[in-house]
Amino acid sequence: METRKVQVTGGSTYTVSIPKSWATENDVGAGTEVEFYPDGDSLFLTPRSEEERTRGSLEITDLTGQDLTRAVTTMYVSGFDVIELTGGEITTEQRSTVREAVQSLVGLEVLEETRDRVVVRDLLDSSELSIHNAVTRMRLISLSMLQDAITALSELDHDLARDVIGRDDDLDRLWLVVSRIFRATLRTPKAAEELGLPREECFDYHSSARQLERIGDHATKIAHLTLNIEEPLPEDVIDAIDDLHGDAVEVVDTAMDALFAEDNDEATRLANEARTGVRAIDERVRAIDELLRGLDPTRAQLLGLVVDSVLRSADYGGNVAETALQKAAPTP
Question: Which of 179, 140, 81, 160 has the alpha carbon at shortest distance from 260?
Answer without folding.
Answer: 140
